[in-house]
Design brief:
The complex is a heterodimer of chains A (314) and B (265).
Chain A (H helix, E strand, L loop, with lengths): L1 H15 L19 E5 L2 E4 L17 E5 L4 E5 L4 H14 L4 E5 L5 H4 L11 E5 L2 H20 L12 E3 L4 E4 L4 E6 L9 E5 L4 E9 L10 H11 L6 E6 L9 H20 L4 H7 L11 H16 L3
Chain B lengths: L1 H9 L1 H13 L2 H16 L4 E3 L4 E4 L10 E7 L5 E8 L6 E7 L4 E9 L5 E9 L4 E8 L23 E5 L9 E7 L9 E2 L4 E2 L5 E8 L2 E8 L8 E6 L7 E7 L4 E6 L4
Parallel strand pairs in B: 1-8
Antiparallel strand pairs in B: 2-3, 3-6, 4-5, 4-7, 5-14, 6-15, 7-8, 9-10, 10-15, 11-12, 13-14, 13-16, 16-17
The chains are: A alpha/beta (314), B mainly beta (265).
Chain lengths: 314, 265
């Protein structure tokens, strides 16, 4: 235990000193796991680990990155902890000196919002769904405590709330010759999913409305999510950046998620109709999907519980 | 009780750390806790191990701490008149006191509960001849009591008191039928933060449930804040021709609801 925390302190010290995580001999924050790639002109992304938060990985499990315009930088999602956000900021500064004008908080989940505190001194606009402030009020303190237990309190900074919210009418940002349009979705993965489109490259950032290969986590509405998936299939987008999985995919990557969610819906409905109780449904529903997703056993049972409680009132 | 809830609401954050403490508790701590708790609930009456006569099934690790399925099986041969479910380390440990009526079949009962931290869960069956038979399970879960309430982002108060009865089409091996009663109710336990008022939602939970079938009581139940929101209970009954269910529930804020469910098929 003592060895782990001292290794932690070392990493933080080096990060604070401006060294990138890839220089560090840490199992989690290692060169092979954390590489910033320019996946399209001016779009830099880091693939998150297919893992849950641990002290070793500092909750660096979501796909995060940034978009560079002529006048400003937009952070596509902030990361899962203070060191994850600091690492992202360091990576941005290796590429550009432009101001970090915008930090997107894609939804309420910890792996997407706890990196935001690393950007407070840049005074960007923190942008979120109009329901994100409520969700943060309800869950923020709980998530902060839980994450501290998981990765160590020293790596968890203050909770950042949006300084600008996007309503159902949507919103637009200009990074300097680079237009971004934002969309606040109906309840789907969570109650507060925000997506945005970079018009220059026709790249859509649906965050956790799209999981690729990592098993999805249902925390909003199953029927709502299936509905909102339809909005991701738009001729405006030729590429998508999922919240988890490969950092850049084509629209075909939506199909496996739809299949999983439809399987979850259909088999949960069938279990309910056949009088199966929740514990029985948990053991059987979507079991055929096990081989298709990483972390399946960590999330499927929870997804079935959510689906069951939603669908039994149909 | 009211005072306790108030305190629990005010100290929500502190309680989360308290439950983290509980998760660090050792087995001797838990044994000691249960000794004190069972004495408070049952007085000096001795508890004896239930053995196979009473079994309690729960996941060892709960995937959703706010909705943890719990299955009780009681051998009819012990002539149970009721069973209590106690979640030792929850803020208010007694989750449910179930009393079996003349139409009851205690062979199978299912509930869904909230679990705040690592804890033992006890089931204590009360028999007609006054014995108390206990069994327990250790469950790993966290945060189930303060978790958000609601279905798919809907207003949790929507359709409060609505009920549904679901019937298992497959009969039990001995011919009994299984029914599940679903109730729409947020079961606010005083630990859910309200972003509008910047305070905690006042506790409002179902405390009384009575289920009758064909004019006879199947079971009545006193419940507390550990029952999940939108609660459900599964139980067995013996079908009679044209038998109908009559369900009455009441909550701690004076709400009461009565639904009659016609015979299934």
């Amino acid at each position: 235990m003592a060895r782990v925390s001292s290794a932690h302190a070392t990493r933080r010290t080096m990060l604070a000193g401006g060294l990138c995580a890839c220089c560090l001999p840490r199992a989690g924050f290692s060169a092979s796991s954390f590489r910033m790639q320019e996946v399209a002109p001016g779009i830099f992304l880091r693939r998150g680990l297919d893992a849950d938060a641990t002290p070793d990985n500092a909750d660096a499990i979501a796909n995060i990155g940034f978009i560079v315009g002529k006048k400003a930088v937009l952070v596509t999602d902030s990361g899962g902890s203070l060191p994850d956000g600091q690492w992202l900021k360091t990576e941005i500064r290796r590429v550009t000196k432009l101001p970090i004008g915008y930090v997107v908080l894609s939804h309420v989940h910890p792996d997407h919002i706890f990196g935001a505190c690393a950007f407070l001194n840049e005074a960007p606009e923190f942008i979120g769904h109009h329901k994100l402030p409520d969700a943060l009020h309800i869950r923020g303190a709980f998530y902060r405590k839980k994450l501290s237990d998981e990765i160590g309190a020293a790596d968890v900074g203050p909770l950042v709330t949006p300084t600008r919210v996007i309503g159902p009418e949507g919103g637009t940002l200009d990074l300097g010759g680079r237009r971004i349009t934002l969309r606040a979705h109906g309840t789907a993965h969570t109650t507060c999913d925000l997506s945005f489109l970079d018009h220059q490259t026709r790249t859509l950032f649906p965050a956790d409305l799209l999981f690729v290969r990592r098993v999805p986590a249902l925390d909003g509405s199953l029927s709502g999510w299936l509905k909102e998936l339809g909005t991701l299939e738009t001729p405006d987008a030729v590429a998508l950046v999922p919240g988890h999985g490969p950092p850049l995919v084509t629209p075909e990557a939506i199909a496996p998620l739809r299949r999983y969610l439809e399987t979850l819906r259909d088999e949960t409905r069938l279990a309910i109709r056949n009088g199966r109780s929740l514990d029985q449904a948990i053991d059987t529903v979507a079991a055929g999907e096990r081989g298709n997703w990483t972390l399946f056993d960590s999330y499927n049972a929870r997804n079935v519980t959510e689906a069951y409680k939603e669908l039994e009132w149909e | 009780m009211k005072k306790y809830l108030f305190v629990s609401a005010m100290l929500c954050a502190a309680m989360m750390s308290a439950s983290a403490h509980a998760s660090d508790g050792t087995e001797p701590d838990r044994v000691q806790r249960w000794a004190a708790l069972s004495h408070r609930i049952f007085g000096a009456a001795p508890l004896s191990p239930a053995g196979p006569a009473v079994t309690l099934d729960m996941p060892a690790q709960a995937d959703d701490a706010a909705v943890v399925p719990l299955t009780l099986r009681i051998d009819p041969a012990i002539h149970a008149v009721g069973v209590d479910v106690i979640i030792d380390d929850n803020p208010s440990p007694v989750a449910a006191k179930i009393h079996f009526g003349p139409a009851a079949d205690p062979t199978l009962i299912k509930l869904q509960v909230r679990i705040d931290g690592f804890t033992n869960v006890h089931a204590v069956a009360r028999t007609a001849d006054g014995r108390l038979l206990e069994t327990s399970r250790f469950v790993k879960a966290a945060g189930g009591c303060s978790g958000p309430v609601g279905l798919g982002g809907d207003d949790p108060m929507l359709n409060i008191g609505a009920m549904k009865m679901r019937f298992d089409p497959v009969p039990q091996p001995d011919g009994a039928a299984e029914a599940t009663l679903l109730i729409r109710h947020p079961n606010y336990n005083g630990m859910q933060f309200d972003p509008v008022t910047q305070g905690y939602k006042p506790a409002r939970y179902i405390d009384k449930t009575n289920i009758q079938y064909d004019g006879r009581t199947v079971l009545s139940m006193e419940t507390d804040i550990s029952i999940s929101s939108n609660p459900e209970i599964s139980f067995l009954y013996r079908k009679v021709k044209d038998g109908a269910f009559d369900v009455r529930i009441a909550d701690t804020r004076g709400g009461s609801w009565n639904h009659v469910f016609p015979a299934d098929r």
